[in-house]
């Protein structure tokens, strides 16, 4: 079967012909000799290629930005040498990862707009049946909604452009949150009404990375949860939004297409076709080890060279590593806190305990012990270590069933307070993690809705870290400042322990914690604009209204 991969390039030029603010597909010019204004979008194959072209920019809009923007900026991930520009808002308008996310998602929107504009007027006789035209349009609408969802999660407000022939000389202005949400809702409803539950039996060029009706319901759930979080933050009644989110969570579940895998490793295992296409995954950026144009280097980002010949870009903070119970399979199967150097079998790297910080380095021991300042995740395990082959099959999972179950638990708690169904859903995730019921929560563990929300927030960190969820979760739950301040306090405590263990004077290593906002002249605020990112200055300097994208309620 043919899969749709993150880097697949459709041989199609209409996107390039449709000028668009930040959004044209920019395919090679020679492709206009294949399709032009007279012969494009004539056949069903043309329409299929137009939709396929949207996926060309999926990688640019999601990797590595998903992790950089949503995990490294929180207590879920760490990037050495970052200088903490994310948390301190240092020159983010000129940051390449921020720009990559902005550009990639706008390019998807531009190609989706072009596909929608051109497929809509095509006569149904051009397709093998009327349902096929609706299906193609549904796919384009989903991808447009997905890209806008990504943009609004990262930048809060952006322009709203739905015309594939948008005048490139126009001056775009920021749309309201309400207008952006309305467009995404409409697109996702169109998608849900015509996308199949599965592509397995469709002979339309592959199914691997295409969205399904379940994915559309899942993003409608997320959209309404985010809206409810905004409403609660503003002191408004969010019950209607929570109820809508519940409806869509139930629709995902009711498809019967998704299930938790037996173990957490089964979700991420890149070594077998069965695992790569397991039915816990609802929507993902797929990769191929067989098709270089569709491959991903994602695995290299999450492993150090000394462990698995990787690039050591993203890692796990010790503060998160220490939160896990040792019997939790999300710890034992997914986290790497100890390993032998791939070049030197007499050198061992090891994460210290909270009390050991600063004491493990020992050049005279055998094996030599090197203290790790961070741990690593095997969610993106590089199975081809030492081969220098970067055509890897690892998925970038954007929505999975475990997330939906935790979301439903959250929604029911917001609607009804602490309840047995929410508790059972939370415990379902924990029972897989521990392989038993010993670590289940009981109703008596929670007194208030806020208590359960806090526990759920912590569980989502343990389950979904480095999957692009954390910053969005913290904002929606109203816990961004609380958890970020606690994270920075924990870093300070760790460094102070290290000073004592090394016999250093108090404050000798203060530079390791004083760089964080908690200890600066600009500490975090509940409604801090630093929860979101500035639109890249290459655009905001040309279109001044874009400078105001993070303007909202302040403390």
Structural class: mainly alpha
What is the 3D shape? globular
Number of strands: 8
Tell me the helix content.
40-55%
Would you state the CATH class of one domain?
A: Mainly Alpha
Largest sheet: 3 strands, antiparallel
What portion of residues belong to β-strands?
5-15%
Report the span from N to C terminus. 54 Å
Q: Which strand order spans the largest sheet, edge to edge or round the barrel?
A: 2-7-3
Q: What's the helix count? A: 23
- Extract low-pLDDT stretches: 5-33, 202-206
Can you tell me the CATH architecture of one domain? Alpha Horseshoe
Q: Please tell me the overall pLDDT.
A: 89
Secondary-structure map with pairings?
Blueprint lengths: L13 H4 L26 H9 L5 H5 L2 H6 L14 H4 L7 H24 L10 H26 L21 H18 L18 H21 L5 H16 L9 H5 L4 H4 L4 E5 L12 H4 L3 H4 L7 E2 H4 L7 H4 L2 E2 L1 E3 L6 E4 L17 E4 L2 E4 L18 E5 H16 L3 H15 L14 H16 L5 H7 L3 H23 L8 H4 L22 H4 L15
Parallel strand pairs: 5-6
Antiparallel strand pairs: 1-8, 2-7, 3-7, 4-5
Helix pairs in contact: 2-7, 6-7, 7-8, 8-9, 9-10, 10-17, 17-18, 17-19
Task: Give a brief rundown of this model.
With about 550 residues, the chain is mainly alpha-helical. The chain has helices at about 15, 45-50, 60, 65-70, 85-90, 95-120, 130-155, 175-195, 215-235, 240-255, 265-270, 275, 300, 305-310, 320, 330, 400-415, 420-435, 450-465, 470-475, 480-500, 510-515, 535-540; strands spanning about 280-285, 315, 335, 340, 345-350, 370, 375, 395-400.
